Amino acid sequence: MSEKQGTVCVVGLGTVGLPTAMYIKRKGFRVYGYDVLDVKVRGLKVTSNWDDVPRDVDIYVICVSTGLDVNQQPDLKSIYDVCERIKQKNPDSLVCIESTIPVGTCKSITEKFNLKKIAHCPHRYWREDPKRHGVKQLRVLGAVNSEALNLAKNFYSKLGIPTYIVSKVEVAELCKIIENTYRFVQIAFAEELRMFCESLGLNFEEVRNACNTKWNIEILEARYGIGGECLPKDTRYSLSIAKSLGLSLDIVEAALRSDDRYKAWVGRLR
């Protein structure tokens, strides 16, 4: 396939961004990769100098990391920095944000940077699937307006990525956060159950496997505590959003405390 599909710049070449860039290139797009670090990738035009990114980019795919600040609140500095750069380079391009972001971020970007074509299609990364890297999993897609949505639908269709279209971009934003929060709570329950079983002198795995013979029960594994970049961070995103509304998520808060207790308990076993 020729590179007539269009020009794409993938911003952020980490765990998610690099495989995404390589996948898009295989689909016939002209692809540039940008990262603040000096990354070299065979077969891909990569730069750490924004001036090297051409002005004729049709689509930006943002895959930068989003985290928490010192107060455990969402830190969107990396997202905003990228959008400021895009505003200066080509404000009329389609911007697809695949990073996890709090509710209201896309609308905020539209207002703050005057970028009118913002879509959100959160990546569903799964480290156990390195070959496809989760790229081709069914993805939720929303946008700030119908023009951006149609452009994004067309883009992901060309990539062969199935999408589930939602009516508001805020639905897509919240969806990814809730997915990971739900997973966190599920694992935290399994961790509590393991401590409970051990206190009763019973084998957790045997109890778990027995329970899971019922068609609507699926108790997860309990290992060494909930880690990684996504689940703990996104669970705190949920709490931050709720707090901004004057609400509390009691089960979620309890799950975070429970995971801390479990980690201490596992530490004493080792």
Give the arrangement of secondary structure elements:
Blueprint: E1 7-11, H1 17-26, E2 30-34, E3 45-47, E4 59-62, E5 67-68, E6 74-75, H2 77-89, E7 94-97, H3 105-113, E8 118-120, E9 139-143, H4 146-158, E10 163-165, H5 169-199, H6 204-211, H7 231-244, H8 250-269
Parallel strand pairs: 1-2, 1-4, 2-3, 4-7, 7-8, 9-10
Antiparallel strand pairs: 5-6, 8-9
Helix pairs in contact: 5-7, 5-8
Characteristic terms for this protein:
8 helices, alpha/beta, 44% helix
Describe this structure in words.
With 270 residues, the chain is an alpha/beta fold. The chain has two domains: 7-167, Rossmann fold (3-Layer(aba) Sandwich), CATH 3.40.50.720; 177-269, N-(1-d-carboxylethyl)-l-norvaline Dehydrogenase, domain 2 (Orthogonal Bundle). It contains eight helices and ten strands. The chain has helices spanning 17-26, 77-89, 105-113, 146-158, 169-199, 204-211, 231-244, 250-269, and strands at 7-11, 30-34, 45-47, 59-62, 67-68, 74-75, 94-97, 118-120, 139-143, 163-165. An eight-stranded mixed β-sheet has the order 3-2-1-4-7-8-9-10, sandwiched between helices. The mean pLDDT is 93.
